[in-house]
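[audit] Reproducing an earlier prediction to check determinism. Same input, same settings, fresh worker. If the tokens differ from the archived copy the diff job will pick it up downstream; this log only records the rerun itself.
[audit] input (209 residues):
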Amino acid sequence: MKNLELHKCILGPVMTNCYFLKNKETGELLIVDPADQPRAICDKVKELQAKPVGILLTHGHYDHILAVEEVKKEYGIPVYASARERETLENPMVNLSGMQGKACSVKTDVALADLEVFEAAGFSVQVLDTPGHTMGSCCYYLKDEGVLFSGDMLFYGSVGRTDLPGGSTAEIVKSLHRLLEALPEETEVFPGHDISTTIGYEKRYNPFV
């Protein structure tokens, strides 16, 4: 990682990974999947002495978005997500927050298209549509830093569940193959839950390949 200083908090009822991508040179920060506990997120930002400039959402399930509105308001920053994930983000019954007694609806400020490259916090970020866990699940690839944020699409030795609204086993397997064929083996993968992995490891050992 050249300019990326990466940190993580594990938040919420199902131990979701919330990532903090700090640019070592500028101090600017991207927050990936503000899962829950906005005060803990803001405390982490303060600890890092960083300046948040954007929120990246890998998908719209409640356990990845409950703190979005408060963090967005605190720092006045935009929310990025795949254009295909609008319904999941906005509908509490689809994003499952309505079933948890915490009805949550999130509006996207920047709706991203597949393969779109954008600049944020001094990083070049490419969005890769990877449906299967939800209809609009996506991954964020920072080529220059050699990292991928996979949300709940790809885990260490596994893939995300497909029995929730918008899920599809056929689609998630297709998405997995797309990532493994497109990205260098040394790419580090940081998922929405559990530990990190690499594209090379998943090529060899993921049972869904």
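[audit] rerun output stored. Observation attached for the diff report: The mean pLDDT is 97.
[audit] end
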